[in-house]
Amino acid sequence: MPRRRRAAGIGALPGRKPQWLATGLTIAAAALLAGCASTQPETMPGSTAAPVAAQWHAPLPHGGQLGNLSRWWAQFDDPLMLRLIEEGQHASPTVAQAAARIADAQAARVAQNAALLPSLDASVSASRGRPDLETPVGTETSAGLQLGWELDLFGAGRAAADAARARLASSQSGWHDARVSIAAEIATTYVELRACEALAEQAEIDARSRARTAQVTRLATASGFRAPAEENLANASAAQGNVTLIEQRTQCELLIKALSALAAQDEAALRRELSTATGRLPQPAELAVTAMPAEVLAQRPDIIAAAHDVVAASADSDQAQAQRWPRIALTGSIGTTRIVSGGISTNGSVWSIGPVTVTLPLFDGGTRRANAEAARARYEAATTVYAARLREATRDVEDALVMLDSTAKRSGDAAIAATGFERSYQATEASYHAGTASLFELEDARRSMVAAQSAVIELQRERIATWIRLYRALGGSWPADEDKEHDNE
User: Fold this and answer.
1) What membrane topology was assigned to this protein in its record (predicted)?
2) Range scoring the smallest mean pLDDT among 50-59, 234-243, 363-372, 432-441
3) Rounded-to-integer distance, Cα 5 and Cα 160, Å
4) Which of 248, 236, 246, 249 has the alpha carbon at shortest distance from 210?
5) CB–CB of 393/473 below 8 Å?
């Protein structure tokens, strides 16, 4: 049970000792009861009760670098993507709102800390008049200081200050999380656009191949070498190729508009910059995940924010409990007064200590009890949310690791297939020029090669997007020099 501070600075009046003694005993008894009602978080980061697995259950990537995550974006070989990420973070309304929440939390923290200190006000007044018929006209001037202090005997103010500090830390983590999220979203959109451009090139090759096959089939049908059904099938295939090409180009257009909105870029200027490296996917640096889950998840901003929310809810519960006990307030003043009346001047100092006000809550219809129960329920909800966030974070990392392992296993076979179909096409093309293969065989080999190359492009997009997803799941990071303005308490 915490040690209680002894009240001082108030002297007993003659003949009033029993009343002062009774009041002191009442306050001391309430303080002892209040000190036994403290609420402390039970499940916090790093504690043995935190629901975090002891090890990863998905294959870990190999060959990655254990570098600072804040430098991960800089390791991409695409300066345009890096610039879009940076400008998108500055223009993001989510990041701006998170920064505003930091300012609000900072103001609340200052206010709660100030509430623990005495308040001091200065006043200056002057008046001139004749209060009655027998008093000559006079002038009165005064200047003084007024002091007020509510003694935080039961810890309500300290609990409020603790809650404010925790909410400030939570809002700072929320700002970090917003920056990591917008960076990952812009990067993912950019990768999808580059993959879309590459797939559009393959779709265009495929559409031209189908159109040429249809043209040759029409000529062969007109000459009687092909059945009309084959012409219909070739025309249908060509039309389907055009549909796929149009769909792919439309998807690319939508991605450009999405990227322009996310990064707050002029669309015409963005298109000019994108045209310099059409269809080229940026290559990320691989990450190594060797630490235990608890160590990895400890750096996630959303987990840190949820942990601080638990602390804030615990402090709110303590405050609600403390507000059920008496409140003690002390006031005092000191000043100087000058009175000039009828040629006589009087001046001097005036001061007072008190009154000491003790507010004893007797009956409020159960309001304070209900507030305390509600605060306790909010604390329990915060701990549940924190535990759920830990489970979700673990799942995010595990899912990304599984997808990375899957794309790694498929990459080899996809590359072999693409190489094989390309060689088959080259052989068929040589046979066609030698007159031993038909155009139909050549175009069929071309479409098989295009399909295999498109599969490789899609697999590359999926793998890069999964690396970004893993970066996001690990909590990302941020340059330290950009955080100083938000980390000062």
Assistant:
1) Lipid-anchor
2) 50-59
3) 19
4) 236
5) yes
| Contact (Cβ atoms closer than 8 angstroms) between residue 361 and residue 368 | yes
Is the Cβ–Cβ distance between 63 and 257 less than 8 Å?
Answer: no
Q: Is the pTM of this model over 0.85?
A: no
- Structure tokens that stand for 138 in this block: 């006079």
pLDDT at 51 over 70: no
Specify burial of residue 189 (Cβ count, 10 A radius: 0-12, 13-18, 19+): buried
Residue appearing with tokens 């009687």: 224
Q: What average pLDDT score do residues 424-437 get?
A: 87
Token pair of 238 as six digits? 């060509």
Two tokens at 292? 């235990």
Residue-range domains of the chain with CATH:
44-116+154-325+384-487 (1.20.1600.10), 119-151+327-360 (2.20.200)
pLDDT tens digits for range 448-488 = 999 999 999 999 999 999 999 988 888 876 444 344 444 44
Two structure tokens written together for 188? 């993912």
List, in order, residues 6 or more apart from 189 with CB less than 8 Å away: 255, 258, 259, 262
What stretch of H or E contains 424?
A: helix 367-434
Pairwise CA distance, residues 75 & 83, whole Å: 13
Element (H, E) at 327: strand 327-341
Q: Report angle CA 88, 94, 98 to the nearest 5 degrees.
A: 120
- The residue type found at 399 is D
Please report, rounded to a whole number, the percentage of residues in the chain having pLDDT higher than 90: 37
pLDDT at 386 over 80: yes
As given in the structure block, the two tokens for residue 115 are 């509430």
Q: How do 119-129 and 138-151 pair as beta strands?
A: antiparallel
